[in-house]
Design brief:
Blueprint lengths: L7 H6 L18 H5 L5 E6 L6 E4 L2 H6 L3 H6 L3 H5 L2 H17 L3 E8 L5 E12 L5 E9 L1 H15 L9 H18 L2 E9 L2 H8 L1 H18 L5 E6 L2 E9 L10 H21 L2 E3 L2 E3 L3 E8 L6 H18 L4 E3 L4 H20 L2 E10 L5 E12 L3 E3 L5 H6 L3 H21 L5 E5 L2 H4 L4 H12 L6 E6 H6 L1 H13 L3 E7 L6 H6 L4 E4 L1 H4 L6 H16 L3 E4 L5 H9 L4 E2 L8 E2 L3 H5 L1
Bound molecules: ligand C2E and magnesium ion (2 copies).
Ligand C2E binds next to strand 14, helix 15, strand 16 and strand 18.
């Protein structure tokens, strides 16, 4: 029975106050009851025993929650069931308090609607004694979604920068405090990086504030892009940004490095990555602009133990870096100790370049349909006498920053060329891929630097694939096209590496003379269980096939992944399932 339709007499018989039937009609021809059911609120009467047993619920409740009054009447537990799990305990405690003390009930909470949404309500009720002495709840529910929304917005604004949507200083400090507490418990390190654009004032003055805002938005996006998902990027206002790197291991994977040095290195690699991301021109409307930033880094626990001081130190270091010249970074304090660490890493890398402490490992690239190895990718490692074999993640970014990537890249090419010739002499006809860093790619002397080593070793250019990352390729697609077309005339072929991690313009992609699209392994890893990743990978495969490129999936680790990818039309693959990167000597055996 719908209590809203209960004859007034029945309500009265139930002892409900307030809803006393009204005999005389008010002026506009509506009964009080009808009036009640038109106000933008829900009026209810409920029993006191248990959490709720609804006697009357005005019909507006249906629009709010999707449950008609009859449903409320039929199920005494409905209200408690619909309370949002995060609010339930608090609200039930309050209700109990009202039941016991007779005090006013005044609560804001969320109810789950029939369609699974939430509504924010304010519920005000009092205990009222009926004719027979029983106590009843008599209350009003008001929809407060709009006010809540406004409050959320205020809260958001209080914690975020309006222009970029990034966290602001307040939020940054709060998160930093939490991360510091965690770092204390688990003996971890935390780094704070202060980032400040050089000559930002000039942009505002010459191009206008709109351009300035646009630049800040773009810088925010690049900083977010180069940081890890768990890092925090904040804007303090103006052209000042802060980065928080938390949960850093106190030692590093550089096994012989002392504790502090490990953290320093991580922060340095991030600093190098930030500087690298700034190197690409910014496009503001029709204008292309180059900007640099000065960085300052401060570390917990070596420099400071609290959020404020860490931020202050990072900013002080940033100013020192700015003073020394644009586009650099300084680690706080720039005393002998730190400079020493940096010098040491620099020295180590320089020494490695001099002594050619590099080795190439090769990872087979297979034809997914029949498992045949069609080529290998050359991946460089640092064979440090003290620390053993180090992966590229330990040194490539820093090498780029220090201008040492060119000699490393040159070594890679010469080594790969002669290895390829040796394999050929053994009767192995393999395509060989190698990775080109962005800095090498934009080098005006690229063509001769790539072709000369290959030619002089007698390695056929047609058997060599140059891998460039999507980000590098799409930075300036017109120039990329020019460079690729030039090299292609010589016979070289190209692959876009880590596809899916950058932003590609599809029309530009179509125009690039690229043979292979390498799907980044972050898309492959969740396969085949993750439908979203599955859809993404499928569409990248279709895109590649549609553009006449060979789709290649990186990082295949399981048979299920291989099967899924093959079914979707992926042609080539690479990954631990087939082989880890291995020394050159092991390749012939893997082919047989
Ligand atoms: P990349 O070109 O995308 O190379 C693939 C990376 O994925 C390699 O890491 C490889 O070991 C790893 N990998 C391959 N299969 C699997 C798998 O099934 N599961 C997982 N989890 N990983 C897999 P590596 O050797 O550490 O190289 C990392 C990156 O360093 C390369 O990414 C490339 O961007 C860069 N790099 C490597 N060698 C050179 C080089 O000679 N010059 C330059 N500039 N960069 C290089
Ligand atoms: Mg690669
Ligand atoms: Mg890759």
């Amino acid at each position: 029975m719908n209590p809203a339709r209960l004859p007034p007499r029945a309500l009265e018989a139930a002892g409900a106050p307030l809803l006393r039937p009204v005999r005389e009609r008010p002026r506009r021809g509506l009964s009080y009851r009808e009036l009640l059911e038109r106000v933008p609120a829900v009026v209810y009467v409920a029993g006191r025993n248990g959490v709720s047993s609804t006697i009357y619920m005005s019909p507006q409740i249906e629009e709010l929650t999707g449950y008609a009054p009859s449903a409320w009447e039929a199920d005494a537990e409905l209200w408690a069931k619909l309370l949002h799990p995060e609010d339930r305990e608090r609200v039930l405690t309050e209700a109990k308090r009202t039941n016991e003390s007779g005090e006013l009930f005044d609560c804001e909470y969320r109810l789950l609607t029939r369609r699974g949404r939430t509504v924010w309500l304010r519920d005000r009720a009092q205990l009222v004694r009926g004719n027979d002495g029983t106590l009843w709840w008599q209350g009003v529910l008001i929809d407060i979604a709009e006010r809540k929304h406004a409050e959320d917005k205020v809260a958001f604004l209080a914690y975020h920068d309006q222009l970029t949507g990034l966290p602001n200083r307040t939020m940054f400090e709060e998160i930093l405090e939490l991360d510091l507490a965690r770092a204390r418990r688990h003996d971890l390190s935390v780094a704070v990086v202060s980032v400040d654009l050089d000559d930002f004032k000039l942009v505002n003055e010459t191009l206008g504030y709109d351009a300035g805002d646009q630049l800040l938005g773009e810088v925010a996006a690049r900083l977010t892009h180069v940081s890890r998902e768990t890092d925090v990027v904040a804007r303090l206002g103006g052209d000042q940004f802060l980065l928080l790197l938390s949960d850093l291991e106190r030692g590093s994977s550089l096994r012989s490095a002392p504790e502090e040095e490990g953290t320093t290195l991580t922060a340095e690699v991030v600093a190098a990555r930030i500087q690298e991301s700034m190197r690409r021109p910014f496009r503001l409307g029709d204008v292309e602009l180059y900007a640099t930033a000065s960085l300052g880094i401060s570390l917990y626990p070596v420099d400071a133990h609290d959020a404020r001081t860490l931020i202050q130190n990072a900013e002080a270091a940033m100013y020192r870096s700015r003073k020394a010249g644009p586009g650099g970074y300084v680690i706080y304090p720039s005393g002998d100790r730190r400079t020493g660490a940096r010098l040491k890493m620099g020295t180590l890398l320089h020494r490695a370049v001099e002594r050619r402490e590099w080795v190439l490992h090769y990872q087979p690239i297979v034809n997914l349909a029949d498992g045949r190895t069609v080529g290998v990718e050359a991946l460089v490692r640092w064979d440090d006498p003290a620390r053993g074999i180090l992966p590229p993640s330990e040194f490539i970014a820093l090498a780029e920053e220090m201008g040492l990537i060119e000699p490393i890249g040159e070594w890679v090419l010469r080594e790969l060329a002669s290895q390829s010739v040796r394999w050929r002499e053994q009767g192995l006809d393999l395509e060989v891929s190698f990775n080109l860093s962005p800095r090498q790619f934009w080098d005006p002397g690229l063509a001769s630097k790539v072709i000369e080593p290959l030619r002089s070793a007698g390695c056929p250019l047609e058997s060599v694939v140059v891998e460039i990352t999507e980000t590098a390729a799409m930075t300036d697609p017109a120039r990329t096209q020019e460079i690729l077309l030039g090299l292609r005339e010589e016979g070289l072929r190209f692959a876009i590496d880590d596809f899916g991690t950058g932003y590609s313009s599809l029309s530009r992609l179509r125009d690039l003379p690229v043979d292979t699209l390498k799907i980044d392994r972050s898309f492959v890893a969740p396969l085949p269980g993750d439908p979203q990743a599955g859809a993404l990978v499928t569409s990248i495969i279709q895109l590649a096939n549609g553009l006449g490129m060979v789709p290649l999936a990186e990082g295949i680790e399981s048979e299920d992944q291989r099967r899924f990818l093959t079914a979707q039309g992926c042609v080539q693959g690479q990954g631990y399932l087939f082989s880890h990167p291995v020394p050159a000597e092991e390749i012939p055996a893997r082919l047989r």
